[in-house]
Design goal:
- The protein is an alpha+beta fold and 547 residues long.
- The chain has a domain of 230 residues: Glutamine Phosphoribosylpyrophosphate, subunit 1, domain 1, CATH 3.60.20.
- The protein has 21 helices and 21 strands.
- A 7-stranded antiparallel sheet has the order 1-20-19-15-14-9-8.
- A hairpin with a 5-residue loop joins strand 10 and strand 11.
Length: 547
């Protein structure tokens, strides 16, 4: 039970509050202070922004396990000082996975793989992302990058407020808590930890040191891979040692869309970053200048919502592994097509463009930048909270449930197949102007992610709000049909104006899950002289830290 000192405080926040932007020449912004501080530590030891991002990402697997873990997937966009690079570290389906595999094991009429258990687990890609980034762009030994996370896992940390809320909510889900190893690792004393209570992950410390010593090979070929394969075989999973050993991340060229003199870059499919590009393209080619409208007014918000719904209608229909797509990203970003689609937006009426049904997510996003000009936009995720629920206690290793994003419908571009990557929701973002870096950023939260990209960019580029203000501002989230969630802090007149246009509104106070959370680093000029301005979302426990 919590100690007297822990139980004395009420950690609710009864008053509105705003964070101030952070200015520095070296910055790390994450959703947990210990991860940001680990990144700064690595920078102080001579590392660069890639080193800092990898170290911070490793710490995040320990301090925010309700969102990510060693068994997560990851994506990255980075500016190396000369050009942009993209990394797709989403893992593929095991070779045994077919639609018949799931219908035999679960239900003849199943439409998707299950949410929990081994049949939700694709090959985890996050560790391979760390190793690949370090090998190509890092300066410090990879083992040194894993050291801060191993120390935090072994010594423990006091569980923060927002993480504890999500952890406690997960502890009520029988489908999650009955999975192998989950309760042993994540429900000490038979419950979720309390706010301020110390939590340790000795198994994760062991895994992180093995990963560091082998540059990640232990996870895919060595002792951890062998433990994963044994557990899979013993517990009815399809994952094999060959599935793990055969994985490698893919270096990709980011796709892009111009908007208001800037260019937004996203990872190409199998991710949903294309939705943010399409929505901005619709706004760019529409008839209304958003900058001329009130920043928080109903008219401007409505136009963004309708553009977002149009974008989702296309993305949910067409986006999958690129080889399975009937149309390309370039087709959906064609200016003529965007102009044609933009004409469908009625400024006075909400419409149902056939957007798909959103799902709950569990993701962390972080960004780092250094005084030499390197900027890193990095995201990793379990997909839905704690993911599959499957945990290997001896390694503190929790596994994502990204396989649930596959379809079992043979007509779908996203139908499951051996070695195929599923549709992904996690998307790092990057902004340039005239070919030069401007901002590394991202907004966590499943279906909310491209919506967060669009809303924050409109605020910064059309209305000149600084990154922290754009991050703090109230958000909306469109769902299926005319359904729309808005934050409780949205102006009452705006809510009324949206309702009058036909949006079916629900005002929600749970900002963590429903409205995403972001981290932003905007370059002010010469990084060695002017540096950067950074923001961290108040909807999580995070921190933008710099020196």
């Amino acid at each position: 039970m919590p100690t007297h000192a822990q139980a004395r405080f009420d950690y609710a926040v009864p008053y509105p509050s705003a964070r101030l932007p952070v200015f520095a020449r070296n910055v790390v912004a994450t959703s947990h202070p210990l991860a940001a501080q680990a990144g700064l530590r690595i920078l102080a030891e001579g590392g660069n922004a890639v080193d800092a991002a990898v170290a911070a990402a490793a710490v995040m697997t320990v301090v925010e396990p309700c969102s990510n873990g060693l068994g997560s997937d990851a994506f990255c966009i980075l500016w190396d000082g000369q050009q942009l690079h993209g990394l797709n570290a989403s893992g593929p389906a095991p070779q045994a996975w077919t639609p018949d595999h799931f219908r035999r094991r679960h239900a003849p009429d199943a439409t998707a793989p299950p949410v929990r258990g081994w049949d939700a687990v694709t090959v985890p890609g996050a560790v391979a992302a760390w190793a690949s980034l370090s090998a190509r762009f890092g300066r410090l030994p990879f083992e040194a990058l894993m050291a801060p996370a191993a120390e935090v896992a072994e010594r423990g940390y006091a569980v923060p407020v927002v993480v504890q809320q999500k952890w406690a909510a997960a502890a009520t889900l029988d489908a999650l808590t009955r999975q192998p190893g989950f309760a042993e690792v994540f429900l000490p004393h038979g419950r979720a930890p309390a706010v301020g209570e110390r939590f340790t992950m000795p198994g994760a410390a062991r895994a992180l040191r093995a990963i560091g010593a082998t540059r990640g090979r232990a996870f895919y070929e060595g002792e951890i891979a062998e433990a994963l394969a044994r557990a899979s075989a013993a517990q009815g999973g399809a994952m094999t040692l060959a599935d793990l050993a055969g994985f490698a991340p893919e270096w990709v060229t980011p796709i892009q869309q111009d908007y208001r003199g800037h260019t937004l870059h996203e990872i190409p499919p199998n991710g949903q970053g294309l939705a943010a590009l399409v929505a901005l393209g619709l706004l760019q080619h529409g008839d209304v200048d958003l900058a001329s409208l009130p920043v928080d007014g109903a008219e401007g918000q409505h136009l963004q919502i309708e553009a977002m719904k149009l974008a989702f209608a296309d993305v949910y229909r067409f986006v999958a592994e690129p080889a399975s797509m009937a149309v390309s990203a370039a087709d959906l970003l064609d200016p003529g097509y965007l102009r044609e689609r933009a004409r469908l937006i009625d400024p006075r009426r909400a419409q149902d463009f056939g957007a798909g049904q959103p799902v709950k997510g569990g993701t962390i996003y972080l960004t780092a930048a250094d005084e030499r000009g390197m900027m890193v936009s990095f995201i990793q995720s379990n997909y839905m909270g704690f993911g599959s629920g499957v945990v290997l206690p001896e390694y503190g290793l929790s596994l994502q449930n990204r396989g649930h994003a596959f379809s079992l419908d043979p007509r779908s571009a996203n139908v499951v197949a051996p070695g195929k990557r599923p549709f992904h929701t996690i998307i790092p973002g990057f902004l340039t102007r005239d070919g030069q870096p401007v901002m590394s950023f991202g907004v966590m939260g499943a279906h909310m992610q491209p919506q967060g990209h669009v809303q924050t960019l409109v605020r910064m580029l059309d209305h000149h709000q600084n990154p922290q203000t754009a991050c703090d501002a109230p958000r909306w989230r469109c769902n299926a049909g005319l359904s729309l969630n808005v934050e409780a802090t949205m102006p009452a007149a705006t809510v009324a104006g949206l309702a009058a246009r036909g949006h079916q509104l629900e005002v929600i106070s749970d900002t963590y899950q429903d409205f995403g959370a972001g981290q932003f680093i905007w370059r002010l000029g010469d990084p060695a002289v002017e540096g950067y301005v950074a923001a961290s979302d108040p909807r999580r426990d995070g921190l933008a830290a710099g020196w």
